[in-house]
């Protein structure tokens, strides 16, 4: 009976133990102006890494909320960084954001980073700690969704 009990406790610990955070994969992409940006440029800062496309209605709905979260925590150096992919020909993603009244920086031609991060669709948002670890991933798009605040709390 003692072996069964120890095995049960070991399994219980494995099931309830928090998952180990994975390092966020390093990448380099250009923005709309051709300036190269590396994830490592934001080392030591909490990063909200948002994968999106201009034709995505859920992205359009959720982006103001993501920007508001980043702005509310600017004193904690939270960075919102977009990665645009699967974009229509001739679209300038940064101009699309500007036309929507949004100012966060977005990187373009993000397919290599999409593959690196295993992104399956839009919107997908990664929350990366100051230590460069992925603390959470969300597909939430409603600005009032508590999941977004919960994910942000993990990286502050």
UniProtKB/TrEMBL annotation:
<dbReference type="GO" id="GO:0017004">
    <property type="term" value="P:cytochrome complex assembly"/>
</dbReference>
<keyword id="KW-0676">Redox-active center</keyword>
<dbReference type="InterPro" id="IPR017937">
    <property type="entry name" value="Thioredoxin_CS"/>
</dbReference>
<dbReference type="InterPro" id="IPR050553">
    <property type="entry name" value="Thioredoxin_ResA/DsbE_sf"/>
</dbReference>
<feature type="signal peptide">
    <location>
        <begin position="1"/>
        <end position="21"/>
    </location>
</feature>
<protein>
    <submittedName>
        <fullName>TlpA family protein disulfide reductase</fullName>
    </submittedName>
</protein>
<keyword id="KW-0201">Cytochrome c-type biogenesis</keyword>
<dbReference type="InterPro" id="IPR013766">
    <property type="entry name" value="Thioredoxin_domain"/>
</dbReference>
<keyword id="KW-0732">Signal</keyword>
<dbReference type="GO" id="GO:0030313">
    <property type="term" value="C:cell envelope"/>
</dbReference>
<feature type="domain" description="Thioredoxin">
    <location>
        <begin position="18"/>
        <end position="156"/>
    </location>
</feature>
<keyword id="KW-1015">Disulfide bond</keyword>
<dbReference type="InterPro" id="IPR000866">
    <property type="entry name" value="AhpC/TSA"/>
</dbReference>
<dbReference type="GO" id="GO:0016209">
    <property type="term" value="F:antioxidant activity"/>
</dbReference>
<dbReference type="InterPro" id="IPR036249">
    <property type="entry name" value="Thioredoxin-like_sf"/>
</dbReference>
<dbReference type="Pfam" id="PF00578">
    <property type="entry name" value="AhpC-TSA"/>
</dbReference>
<dbReference type="GO" id="GO:0015036">
    <property type="term" value="F:disulfide oxidoreductase activity"/>
</dbReference>
């Amino acid at each position: 009976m003692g072996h069964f009990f120890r095995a049960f406790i070991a399994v219980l610990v494995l099931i309830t133990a928090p998952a180990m955070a994975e390092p966020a994969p390093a990448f380099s992409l250009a923005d709309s102006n051709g300036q190269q940006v590396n994830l490592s440029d934001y080392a030591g800062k909490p990063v909200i890494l948002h994968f999106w496309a201009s034709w995505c209605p859920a992205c359009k709905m959720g982006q103001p909320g993501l920007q508001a979260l980043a702005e509310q925590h600017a004193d904690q150096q939270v960075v919102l960084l977009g990665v645009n992919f699967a974009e229509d020909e001739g679209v300038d993603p940064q101009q699309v954001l500007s036309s929507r009244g949004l100012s966060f920086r977005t990187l373009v031609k993000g397919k290599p980073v999409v593959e690196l991060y295993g992104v399956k669709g839009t919107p997908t948002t990664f929350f990366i700690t100051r230590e460069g670890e992925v603390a959470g991933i969300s597909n939430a798009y409603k600005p009032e969704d508590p999941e977004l605040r919960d994910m942000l709390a993990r990286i502050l």
